[in-house]
Amino acid sequence: MTPKQREDFLQQLLALHAELTGKAPMRIEPNRTDEARVGGDEDEQPLNEMMQTIASSRNRNTDGTLARVVKALGKLREDADSFGECEECGEEIPMGRLKAMPYAEFCVACQNNKDGPKGPVRRKHLTDYKG
Ligand SMILES: [Zn+2]
C-alpha cells in the first residue's frame, strides 16, 4: 500500500468516524415545537420524522462499526504497516474490499470462516443442558 492510499483511507475513516459519532450533517434533530412554528413550515415536520427514521436505522446498522473504525484509525496512527492486513492470516486485504470497508479486519476468506455459511453461529454453552 502506498502512503497516498493510506492517506486516502485515513480521510475515509475520519469521515466515517465523524458520521458515526454524530458530527456529520445527518444527525438527529429534536422535533420542532409548535411555539417556534412560523407560518408556512408545515411541510417540514414529516421530513424531519423521515430523517429521524433514516438516522435511527442507520445507527442500528452501524452497531460495532464505530469500534472498528476507531481501531483502524489507531492502526494507521501507531502501526501503519499493519493497516490493511488480515488480523487472522496476515494476508493483505484486497484493495477493493478496503475501499468499500476501510475498517475491515479480515480478508474475505477469514471473514467467511468466522461468519459461517449462514451467518454468525450462536453456540449454546454445555452448561445450558445440565439439570
Ligand atoms: Zn485472512
UniProtKB/TrEMBL annotation:
InterPro entries: Znf_C4-type_bac, Znf_DskA_TraR, Znf_DskA_TraR_CS. The keyword Zinc-finger applies. Residues 82-112 form the Zinc finger DksA/TraR C4-type domain. Signal peptide: none annotated. Residues 24-44, 112-131 are annotated as: Disordered. SUPFAM superfamilies: Glucocorticoid receptor-like (DNA-binding domain). Keywords: Metal-binding, Zinc, Zinc-finger. Residues 29-40 have a biased composition (Basic and acidic residues). A zinc finger (dksA C4-type) spans 86-110. This is Zinc finger DksA/TraR C4-type domain-containing protein. It comes from Corallococcus caeni.
